[in-house]
Amino acid sequence: MQRYHRKGIFTVHQLSYLFTPRRRRKGSKNQPLRFNLELQALAIRTGKIYVHELPVLNRHPVELYVDFEGIPDQHFHYLIGLLICEGEHQTHHALWADTVHDEERIWNELLEHIQRYPEAPIYHYGSYEPKAIAQLAKRYETPIDGLMTRLVNVNSFIYGKLYFPVRSNTLKELGMFVGASWTAPEASGLQSLVWRYRWEGTREDTYKDILLTYNAEDCQALLALTSYLRTLCDSADTQMHVDFAD
Known about the structure:
Layout: H1 2-6, H2 12-16, H3 37-46, E1 49-51, E2 62-71, E3 76-86, E4 89-96, H4 103-115, E5 122-124, H5 128-139, H6 145-148, E6 151-153, E7 162-163, H7 171-177, H8 189-202, H9 205-235, E8 242-244
Parallel strand pairs: 1-8, 2-5, 5-6
Antiparallel strand pairs: 1-7, 2-3, 3-4
C-alpha cells in the first residue's frame, strides 16, 4: 500500500488504470503466473472476468467434493463434509466428531467412502484439506499415497490465472459470484470456530445444525464453482463479461 501511495494511488479505482498487458518472455511458458493486483482492480471496476489461462477440468463419471472443519490450535478436525456426485445424482455425508476421541472414527468413515470410488478425483479448495489429510494419516498411521494423488485444488485453476470482479479469492466470495448461497449471512471459517465453541459449552443442537449446514453449503459452493469453471472454459470466447488479459 505504501508503494502505491508513493505513486499517488489511493483507491482500487485508481489502481485499475495501472494494468497493462505484458508479453511473456521466451522460455517463461512453464513459469508460474503471479497474482496481479492491478488486473484484480480492473476486474472489480469493469465487472468482467479476466483470463490469463483457461481452466481445464475434465469431467468424470464420479466426482468427490470434500470440506473439513477443524480447530487449528488443537489440531482437531471435528467435521468432514463429503459430496459424492454420480452423474446428476448427489449424496452428501456429514461426518461429525463430538470429541477428539471421535476423530479417528470419522477419518475411517471418510476413507471408507472414498475407497468405494478409486478412480474419482477429490476436489477441495485451498491448502487446508491436504494438510488435514496428511495430519490424520500420520496420526492414525494410514497409508494415503494413492489418495493424495487424487486431490484437485480448485483454487489452483484461479490464482494468477482467472480474475473475478470480487475482492478476494475465498470460496465464499467466488461461490456467491457463481450463485451459491449460505443460510447464515455471517458464515465463515472464523465464525465456525465460534459456533463450535458455543456448541461445546452448551451442547445445543442449534449450533451443531448451523455447522452441519455451513459445511454442506461449502461443499455445494465448491461444486458450483467447479461447474462454472468448466462452463467458462467452453464459452469464454463468446461471453461478453469475459475478457483475456493479453
